[in-house]
Amino acid sequence: MSTAVPTRARGRRTGGAGRRALGALAVVLALVWVFPIYWMVSSAFLPTNRLRTSEPSFFPVDGTLSNFRRVFSDGTFFDAFRVSLAVTGITLVAAILFAFLAALAVSRFRFRGRKSFIVTILVVQMIPAEGLFISQYRLLDDWGLVNAVLGLTVVYVAAILPFTVWMLRGFVSGVPIELEEAAMCDGLSRTGAFFRITFPLLAPGLVAAGVYGFLQAWNEYTLALVVMTDPEQRTLPLWLQGMVEANKATDWGVIMAGATLISVPVIVFFLLVQKRMSAGLVAGAVKG
Amino acid sequence: MTAPRTTPAPPAPPVSTPAPDVPVEPAPRPVVRARPRPFRARLSPYLLLVPALVPVAVALGWPLLRQFVISFQEYGLAQEFGQPAEWVGFDNYTALLSDPYVWGVIGRSIAFCLVNAALTMVVGVGLAVLLTRVGTAARTVLQVGLLLAWGTPVLATMTVWQWLFDSQYGVINWLLAGPLGAEGMRQHSWIIEPASFYFVATVIVVWMSVPFVVFSVYAGLLQVPDEVMEAAQLDGAGPWQRLRHLQLPMVKPVLMIVGLLQVIWDLRVFTQIYVLQRAGAPTRETHLLGTYIYSLSKEFSMAGAMATIMLVITLGLTVFYIRRMLREDV
User: Do B67 and B299 contact (CB within 8 A), yes or no?
Assistant: First the structure.
């Protein structure tokens, strides 16, 4: 082992300059990824006359809140916000609950059809929703659920479920069954053992699946475009696209204010829980 | 037949050990579980599956089936008003597949999908490896940057990219014409030409897909034990060799699933293309599968046939992956 020390020390030293260069590269790449978001927020604070110039303003010094005031001044933002909130809320509760039960069945029981179910879950994710939306629209139309929160919720739950089951399955398998068995030897029922022992350990997984579902439902555009044709029932992404089409090439400031408004809460939420979510995505991917 | 088991199921198979596909023999039971299995317990896994199966069957399965059936029928205006649809066999498919324009859409979609998925994977894996080789400060900065991009709603992202590429006041044209001196770019419209339309779409799609790949792969790379890496280093393996022969093989399961998802997502790309089209691009020349099917929405049979073709293409592109994953994972 004595040879290890000089080798490693040498590795460090020669790596020093390279490491700094790589660090600089990382920072430059970070700027590339951040710039569009910075630009969105910065433009949102600039008045139109400073956006329509031959020299862009890179810093919103002496900015204005007028773009935001104009977004709030007509009620459509709040209408869309309410619709988005309702759709996302119902979707999330239903999808997480259903997916959790299914994940439980798949990773805690051996039963006939288990493998077919897992294959189905995988294959369903291959189905391009973009090839299905017309058919889904007709289904909802038959039931009078077009332009209805419930209608959009049904297709969202179906869209989110497969991946959520897949993800939670990884988490449930990750909690050793021996823990439950030990609790059962100590006299707990199977259900009791599950809820007292396994369930608390699954909290990160449920949070991860919840955030995944939240982001999917909150940001979804395609199905909303097809199902919510009535301007009164627009979700926030539809509202934003409507605003782009109304103000494009004339008033980017108010568009950027709208984009900032719908993004910032999502980004904050995302940053708070992303660690768990990434862990969940990978757990779902890797664990059997 | 797999014997239905009651109380505790065997522990899930550890990673990388393929679970037996063969019937699970009831293991010798400990004394506590000697009682016969109650019917209720045998039923319970199925009851747990019902809530998940119902919405998927109703909102995905049924539309899929119906669309598939209608793709073999003539479904037009008369049928909207209740006339029974006429069976036309493969007529819709023949009509679509004998149209060179449709082949153009299919070819463009596959090319777009493969280019975008490949670029996303290369850039994503590159950034993930970069994260493992830089100091804490640089790592944090890059992670935060990627997270911000990842967390931003797609529509907001699309909106700001339109503003960046705006022909008159966009910062990209300003940068090219001003500091970089390409005077011709001052009023350049990026989306009017199909080739440059796809370039813009690729930039946007790769930009928004990379963070997911980076974080998944980076999390996988962290699982590679330090001792293994150090041992390899002591044995004289350079950084490139360690990556190629050690790190990448060890994160292969992650690479597989992430790659699979990229291919699926990039083939069905809709929002980015649709929004860019709405921004003033010529739609007919820029359709990919998703937007093309959307444009067929008035012709239900044709849309159904086209969607079925899209499904077949998806399966064709992913069947290799799926078989590998099933062998290794289920």
Answer: no
